[in-house]
Amino acid sequence: MGGEGQSETREAIMEATYRALCDHGYASLTMQNIADEFGKSKGLLHYHFDSKEELLVAFIDYLLAGFEDDIASIEGPPDERLAAFIERFVVANGDERRALHLALLELRAQAPFNDRFRDQLARSDAIVRAAVADMVDEGITTGVFRADTDPDALARVVLAAMDGARMRGLTIGDDTYPAAVRDALITYVLDDLLVGAAE
Amino acid sequence: MGGEGQSETREAIMEATYRALCDHGYASLTMQNIADEFGKSKGLLHYHFDSKEELLVAFIDYLLAGFEDDIASIEGPPDERLAAFIERFVVANGDERRALHLALLELRAQAPFNDRFRDQLARSDAIVRAAVADMVDEGITTGVFRADTDPDALARVVLAAMDGARMRGLTIGDDTYPAAVRDALITYVLDDLLVGAAE
DNA sequence: TAGGATTGACTGGCTAGCCAATCAAGATGG
DNA sequence: CCATCTTGATTGGCTAGCCAGTCAATCCTA
User: Fold this and answer.
1) Domains of chain B, start order
2) Least packed by Cβ within 10 Å: which of A59, A135, A160, B7?
3) Is the CB of B32 less than 7 A from some atom of nucleic acid strand C?
4) B112–A180 C-beta distance less than 8 A
5) CA/C1' separation B1–D28 (Å)
6) B143-199: per-residue pLDDT in tens?
7) Average pLDDT estimate for A120-132
8) Distance from residue B24 (CA) to nucleotide D18 (C1'), in Å?
9) Is A131 exposed, middle or buried (0-12, 13-18, 19+ CB in 10 A)?
10) How much is the pLDDT for B14?
11) Which residues does B124 contact at the CB level (< 8 Å), separation at least 6?
12) Distance in Å, alpha carbon of B23 to nearest chain A alpha carbon
């Protein structure tokens, strides 16, 4: 088989893992689930990935890369980019997206017990946080945001607040949480940041 | 054994569950772990609780009641109470507290799949959120906070931000996260809320 | 001695990983 | 041009381990 087969197969396994995760959640995810979605045998998964952990590490990488690309693709002036970033936490494209974030939450909860999971999340956190801080930075440079704003500090609150809102919304089954926090965040944080807001 | 024995035994089992959770985390928690901490046999646990789930539901109740009591015990003027509440997310009393929150995060991640877990978390969220909103409310009444503040909206951001900061700190192994978000929250939110801050 | 408390062995189900056998397809060579 | 060999892909069954839950027997204690 040609050189393409290798990566095509891995891509297919990643997609199968995605579907299996959405259907079963992380805790109930078995190699058999993934194999069923893959349409091939469980043994074959072990042929391509030494262990379940290897497969999952690869999957996290696959998933986080997607998120990072999505964020990097946001365009426009800094204040609009920031708003669009926040909005990413609110839009819930139906059940699939919800199921994914549910599984991802379980997976993140395992990170403290798994160095490789944790390192990937930490790496991704640094990238996303820097991206948000850059938006703020650029806003200060272009004169949209007040000059006495600390980009990293602001990036942290925004991230923590929206991520926390998503988590709380998911765990208590209240899907209004992210939107409510977004509104409050805009009212009590972002609006005060704009140049022209009273100091 | 007298009527006391029943609840004393249950209390002992709750404490054993607490220790077992801290030691093993939620995902690796077995009835045997709990029994070992309990100092009695696994069969006895099933004598007192029909199933592992029953036991865990009771434990969540036990734990959340503790949190709620702790928050209710905060005293002083509203702005100080709010600051003290936020500080609760920052202070990490050594490894035990960290291990507890680690396990609790895993447990919360299971709530979407377990109605009884979810309902308890939702109930607790309502109580805690109301408590925070009350602080803001009282601050408005006593003239410490600006009158155009929405108590519930503010409670949600504060909760989401600090809870999110804890989660992100735990999952990526960065224990500076909660303190950083607290500082940013105070700078960009609370300070602007005080009467006397420019509007 | 009666009844609750407690034990420890046992079962049944589930899962990751392993392995030997099979298959498909291309390379080799006479 | 066919037979053989090689190699990677794929299967399905097997195993060992783990865990929740059960149960009959035993131990207290009032």
Assistant:
1) 1-49 (1.10.10.60), 53-193 (1.10.357.10)
2) B7
3) no
4) no
5) 10
6) 999 999 999 999 999 999 999 999 999 999 999 999 999 999 999 989 888 887 654
7) 97
8) 15
9) middle
10) 96
11) B64, B67, B68
12) 12
